[in-house]
Design brief:
The protein is mostly helical. 42% of the residues lie in helices and 4% in strands. α3 crosses α4 (95-102) and α3 (79-88) crosses α5. It starts with a strand and ends in a 6-residue tail after the last helix.
């Protein structure tokens, strides 16, 4: 007979136990023989909106990414070439950061927004809205 200290799985307290070894996966509390505590209805209601959003893509960090890529590809520019054009307007972004902007993973500050518009030959308004009348 082995004397072991068993940790009550739900309260965290320790008590003296009997012989044998602990099961690999405990579905019932070994000391009180009861199931684990269940979350309250209120907690489940709070989780419901979060779980429904798991399948959706996270929101983009900027509004201009898709339009920057679209114009860059129409002008047949590489991301490196666009980086060179941006440098002329005082914005130092390498191809990695431009890729992050295009994918919506990097935020764009106002100075960069103006530089993107000038480097691509489009208006700031079009980059932000996509409105054809401001192209």
């Amino acid at each position: 007979m082995w004397i072991v200290r068993i940790r009550d799985c739900w309260t965290g307290s320790t008590k003296r136990g009997g012989k044998g070894s602990l099961p690999a996966q405990v579905t019932m509390c070994p000391l009180r023989n009861h199931p684990p505590p269940q979350p309250s209805k209120e907690y489940l209601q709070l989780l419901a909106p979060m779980e429904s959003n798991l399948d959706q893509h996270p929101p983009a960090a900027n509004l201009i990414g898709e339009r920057v890529r679209w114009v860059r590809e129409r002008l047949q520019l590489t991301q490196d070439q666009l980086a060179g054009r941006l440098a002329k307007y005082g914005v130092q972004l390498d191809y990695v950061k431009i890729g992050q902007v295009e994918k919506g993973k990097r935020r764009v500050i106002d100075k960069e927004l103006v530089a993107f518009a000038k480097a691509l030959g489009v208006s700031v308004t079009w980059l932000l809205s996509g409105d054809e009348s401001h192209l």
